[in-house]
């Protein structure tokens, strides 16, 4: 049962990684120079109620017991209460997460739609100008500060050219007009049959997702090119040419099928990094997602919210890693 | 149809002064240096050590020398048609349909993520207007023709699920399904177990003579080629050093061929030390 | 080779490109020369090198090159567009943007240098120790590395800075803490390829200690790959540091850090675009420089990467 064994190893790895993540967020929470007792009681608390609160929060316990308590709380879905919104952090995070998911998903789809063909094209034109041009564009894409590019894009396409609507997920006029069923505005608008709101939301989505996706284009293109070059050297490619297939079918039908699996891993990984990278993009585009939530909490030193948000992003990040590994096994006939 | 082709006097393949060169930092390196031969509907063996240019010769006929390699020839014609002048579109019509190639190791020459059935059916459909069902039927027939016992089951297998010998038979089926006139077999049995080598050769031989195809059989194994082919070219360092009928091989003149023959162990003699092949730099220029 | 080539330089070239070097130093210089010749042919990589060198020069000579003091306010000349007096315009306090960018180069270089001096070193130590000793040491260290590798870097850096308090030193610490794992992986992979080599066995037979073998024989062999990776990562470090500055978590005002400058220019972006645009260009050019340089170095030092 090698599959079962590998599955178990994977599960243990994921569990260990999540535990490591919890340890890091726990330790960060401990080094914060903010007294959690005072922030719970206010700074006029009596010594008596201070001590009582301290016991209640478990701060008199040894560090490892505090950690176990923390893990237990998190497993029960208790990420603490946000000072800023005075609501449970988990509730806040679940409310804002769909916005981030929507942004990152569209971004990664754009990234893959551009990146894969660019990488294939670079590989089939290896050493000639399209290859160099795509390589240079990739390096440029990896050198632009994304928040700055977002600002400049807003300046150009919104303020000067008026091609796209401004920041936010929908025009102010439409805000709150559809019920948040999934929390993803485009989907909710379609569910409610509000095509007008749907198109408005799509227009709002174009610029931030394109800017965010740009970052993954370079990475996806680079990896695609590398995988493709490996495949084009293989003997089965010669076989396909000997059969009389057109170059298009050789490349897109035979070679691409062989890199599909590692490519999906790459796309899943860049999806994870886009979820993370949305922090800066959301700030620029006033996109009310997890990234904006975390940065707003940072600026008001709301550590419960920051660490809770970090934990959720981290867990999704790790989950995507796991997912890509599972997909690998499902899709590759050699791994079945 | 076959008879009519046989009657035609144009040779199947004419190769004259074929050269394949690769640019290197210090200039052009020639892998094939002026090879000439003609081929009728017969089995021609090309023998040489690795690096002698024998595989490149095969690939340049299909114009599949990997870039940046460059192929030139005074004449490279298939059925009277100039292959070097053919458009890439015309070349695709010729590949598979008229000239096919079986390569060394089915482990690498079959697409690992497509079922073998799909790969064979695809080879058929490229050159015909047949529908999917028709292509599948033909593919199953072809699998049976290469003596695979349970074609239906093998059809849905992936290459890593079949043995080397079966893989090579699948490869042959795929290459012969569009009914080509010329088959280039590039070391088709070198990667196989000795026990299945003969089986695969027998299949190749049968199908070749049934269909009246010409064949170029590239190998490093002089014995094998001598017993299997009608004519033999011996290549050394990108040149043909000897060309003779297989039956006249014992009378070969060139010292390299004589050296090769002398280094073959014989079953009826006491095994002593095998002689070491000596190489004369003058052969490079001959 | 041509007639007018200086004979002395031809002699040097011959000495460098000989197949039979007479000393270790000659062999090393010869290899460096061969690498340089290959590197020089890549024009983009040379451009990258020039950008990075320019950053160093500008940072070193900032007080000489900057036309104004970076903090000198001139409230009568607030938010002026680029002009002869202020080539890149002025910001909300009438400070000269060009001068602030020039002084900001020092901060950028400092961040890059500090991260480059710490994270790869930590990774090198962890990776070589894991690879050299193998067994449970390897298992423990690499599990640890894999776990750290699966963390979201940017978010964790944000959380670290939030905990430690905003500031440029804490930003550097946060970036360094989150960026060592890939170096450990690379160093371990390189170590594994040479661990069983004969010259390592020979050194061991001569009685060299593990510490000596790791320091003297294994680490030098890991350097090439690490340099390539570090150079490529520096672009990312610059972008992360600028991002932290943009969020108000990195360098604090009035420091002329480029990311923080973009943040302050943000509120004027629709009218006085240059206040936010100029620092962004600076970040872009410098990080492109590191990317081009790293890309060129990869071709020379680590050809298997392609």
Structure, explained:
Chain A: GO terms for molecular function: dipeptide transmembrane transporter activity. Chain A: It is a multi-pass membrane protein. With 336 residues, chain A is mainly α. Chain A has 13 helices and no strands. In chain A, helix 5 (89-124) packs across helix 9, helix 7 (146-160) packs across helix 11 and helix 10 crosses helix 11. By secondary structure, chain B is an alpha/beta fold. Chain B has a domain at 11-92 and 216-286: P-loop containing nucleotide triphosphate hydrolases (Rossmann fold, 3-Layer(aba) Sandwich). Chain B has helices spanning 2-7, 54-61, 88-94, 106-109, 116-126, 132-145, 151-155, 164-176, 194-211, 222-228, 255-262, and strands at residues 13-24, 27-39, 43-47, 70-72, 75-78, 81-82, 99-102, 182-186, 214-219, 231-236, 239-245. In chain B, the strands form two sheets. In chain B, strands 7-8-9-3-10-11 form a six-stranded mixed β-sheet, sandwiched between helices. In chain B, strands 1, 2, 4, 5 and 6 form a five-stranded antiparallel β-sheet that branches. The longest helix of chain B has 18 residues, at 194-211. Chain C is mainly α and 306 residues long. Chain C has one domain: MetI-like (MetI-like fold, Orthogonal Bundle), CATH 1.10.3720.10. Chain C has 13 helices and no strands. In chain C, helix 2 (24-41) crosses helix 13 and helix 5 (97-133) runs parallel beside helix 8 (168-179). The longest helix of chain C is centred in the middle third of the chain and has 37 residues, at 97-133. The radius of gyration of chain C is 23 Å and the shape is flat. Chains in contact: A-B, A-C. At the A-C interface, helix 1, helix 6, helix 7, helix 11 and helix 12 of A face helix 6, helix 7, helix 11 and helix 13 of C.
Question: Top keywords for this entry?
Answer:
heterotrimer; B: 286 residues; alpha/beta; Rossmann fold; six-stranded mixed beta sheet; five-stranded antiparallel beta sheet; 23% strand; C: mainly alpha; MetI-like fold; 13 helices
